[in-house]
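Notes to self after the Tuesday call (sharing in case useful).
The group wants a holo model before anyone commits to mutagenesis around the pocket. I volunteered. Ligand is adenosine-5'-triphosphate. Logging inputs and output together so the record is complete.
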Amino acid sequence: MANALAKRFGEVVAVDDVSFTVGASEVLGLLGPNGAGKTTVVRMLTTLSSIDSGSASIAGHDVADDPDAVRRVIGLAGQSAAVDEKLSARENLELFARLYKLAKPIRRRRIADLIERFDMGEFADRPASTYSGGQRRRLDIVAALVAEPLALFLDEPTTGLDPRSRAEVWDAVRSLANEGTSILLTTQYLDEADQLADQILVIDKGRTVATGTPESLKRDVGRDVLEVSLLTDDDLQSARRLLASEEGVSIDPEDCRIDFSITGGTRQSLDVLRRLEDQAVNISDFQLRRPTLDDVFLALTGSSADEPEEISR
Ligand SMILES: Nc1ncnc2c1ncn2[C@@H]1O[C@H](COP(=O)(O)OP(=O)(O)OP(=O)(O)O)[C@@H](O)[C@H]1O
Ligand SMILES: [Mg+2]
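Result:
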């Protein structure tokens, strides 16, 4: 739980008045562009960075007053990997387990379980320096799980991974949440937040710009759009005349397409299509486009989240 968290670095206000609660089995998606303050929030909650004002607690332990107790119940997979390149996955995990002072038999069993569960057997015994990006990321996350944390922090867990590795990380996050772990996950990918998060907090320049479920955010910001492609320019002109009195119509002559802002769901879409059909307007294609989190992000921050800024990192 975070309450009015704030942090500045000199002139830079990195985090300003951010609050949220994450329950057991819940995934909170902290979403924002580069420099939004995501990592700073994670660092404050995981005791790596001091809190300027506001407060935070995890499983009843205050982060500022009792950092040791907090460290015992959390796991963190940060943006920069914490693994030793010279050691294998098994050895790295062993190191983490010793750090948490787990007894030897427990250590052995838990590491073997994790390696099997996260399908790391194939590479678990060679040095981490030989791993692919996806294998390394998996080791990062598994290392955060050695102490069976109640709260797990994942800072951009899938940045730079291919679609298959991302899907594997997503599966792991889902199953951990199902087992009762509270998860705070930062991401710049809207589809990732959409897939995994129960609640989303959108931050930009340190400030909260929106909160809600993926569904509620999409509902509040975007409308469904029915996109109808016409066969010829004549068809487009007929459609334009036929629907001139409708609201929320926009014409895209280049793509020979007409877009309708739909407020009445499937029924209204069917009605529009039927009217075109009745007048023998030739439709080449149509689709009902639901608002995406990208529309939400654009509306809230004035920039797209998946934009190329990332390259400059
Ligand atoms: N140790 C520091 N000293 C000075 N400024 C800092 C420090 N750490 C973060 N900042 C600044 O605070 C702001 C928020 O940074 P933060 O790393 O939290 O962003 P982020 O949302 O994690 O971005 P990214 O998506 O690039 O990881 C940025 O302007 C950053 O330059
Ligand atoms: Mg970051």
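Two things stood out.
The chain has eleven helices and 14 strands.
Residues 163-178 form the longest helix (16 residues).
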